[in-house]
Design goal:
The protein has 2 helices and 7 strands, in the order H-H-E-E-E-E-E-E-E. It is of the alpha+beta class. The protein has one domain: OB fold (Dihydrolipoamide Acetyltransferase, E2P) (Beta Barrel), CATH 2.40.50. It has a 5-stranded mixed beta barrel. A hairpin with a 6-residue loop joins strand 4 and strand 5. The longest helix has 19 residues. The chain is globular and about 35 Å long. The protein starts with 8 loop residues before the first helix and ends with a strand.
């Protein structure tokens, strides 16, 4: 069960950071467009549907829910090096909600050249927290017992 999301002191501090970012989530989005400029109406509707599912998961305090979505990187954080190593970043969804993505780089590759303002699509497992939630399991399961996730960034898929 150590692979389950464990909150250490660093994670608790991170929750405070995400909460601060999420506090005004219905207002401006740090000057970054919430959806790609070239997104079609159908693509925007799909993104909004996925955002609505994430919003419901947040409102219902759900955990262990497989979700898909897309957002803009609002902050790139230092890697979590306790236990399995995770590349961490905060995404702002088009709804304004923020989520922390914890991408296991011991199983999947590091997301190359990830920067603030980049668009990232994801599939993973959502776990509620007061700051907006965490998405992890953004990779395949080597044992084949868990739904596979992924990250898409600049045309590359990280599994």
């Amino acid at each position: 069960m150590k692979r389950r999301l464990a909150l250490g002191l660093g994670a608790i501090a991170l929750i405070a950071v995400v909460a601060a970012l999420n506090a005004g989530h219905r207002s401006a989005t740090d000057g970054v467009a919430a959806t790609p400029r070239r997104a079609t109406a159908a693509a925007r509707a799909t993104i909004q549907d996925r955002d609505a599912a994430l919003s419901r998961a947040f409102e219902r305090h759900e955990r262990d829910v497989v979700v898909e979505g897309e957002g803009i990187v609002s902050r790139v954080l230092a890697d979590d090096r306790e236990g399995s190593r995770h590349q961490r970043f905060i995404l702002r969804l088009s709804s304004g909600q923020t989520v922390l993505v914890a991408h296991n780089i011991d199983i999947a590759g590091r997301i190359a050249s990830l920067e603030k303002g980049d668009t990232v699509a994801f599939r993973g497992e959502y776990v509620w927290n007061a700051a907006g939630g965490v998405v992890h399991w953004t990779h395949g399961d080597p044992a084949g017992r868990h739904p596979a996730g992924w990250i898409k960034h600049h045309g590359e898929t990280y599994r």
